[in-house]
Design brief:
By secondary structure, the chain is mainly alpha-helical. It has 7 helices and no strands. The protein has helices at 6-10, 30-45, 51-58, 64-85, 105-121, 125-133, 139-156. This is YeeE/YedE family protein.
């Protein structure tokens, strides 16, 4: 087995690689709550949380979800490119560091497990809270399963292929 260096494993830790040394009062976090609520409303209005839309996607019956996911990927790619090209800093003036990541077979296994779970439950982690917020309380089982899966991964992380 190949030993991973500390820098190879750094991106797996709970600490952020761009962690800030600034400390703010608790109410500074309300902006994230507000952003999450707005994001959830957009998910509901765009039908991203619809189990039927997700099933259409996995059955290759509709372009709706592929269009949303594809545009998110394009926006993300352009954003990362702009951050790197213009050496963009945070609003507090701290540098943004995007570490390189190596491809490995564990990403294929993880992606397949994620995709199977998404197809079976009709939910991925982002829309789970919006689904629960709209009254689909059965999705709470999916949320608890996602939390349990994250815990299991953390427990076995050192033994898994990375």
């Amino acid at each position: 087995m190949i030993e991973n260096t500390e820098s190879d494993i750094r991106h797996q830790d709970t600490a952020c690689s761009n962690g800030s040394s600034l400390h703010h009062p608790w109410y500074y976090n309300l902006k994230y709550l507000l952003t999450g609520i707005i994001f959830g409303i957009i998910f509901v209005k765009a039908e991203v949380i619809s189990w039927f839309r997700i099933q259409e996607m996995f059955r290759l019956q509709s372009f709706h979800m592929y269009g949303i996911i594809g545009s998110a990927i394009v926006v993300g790619m352009i954003s990362v490119w702009l951050i790197k090209k213009f050496n963009v800093k945070t609003i507090y003036g701290e540098p943004i560091n995007i570490p390189s990541k190596k491809f490995n077979k564990g990403q294929i296994y993880g992606g397949l497990i994620f995709g199977f779970g998404w197809a079976i439950t009709g939910a991925c982690p982002g829309p789970l809270f919006a689904q629960i917020g709209t009254g689909a309380l059965a999705v709470s089982v999916t949320l608890l399963s996602a939390i349990a899966g994250t815990w299991v991964y953390g427990y076995f992380r050192d033994k898994l292929p990375h």
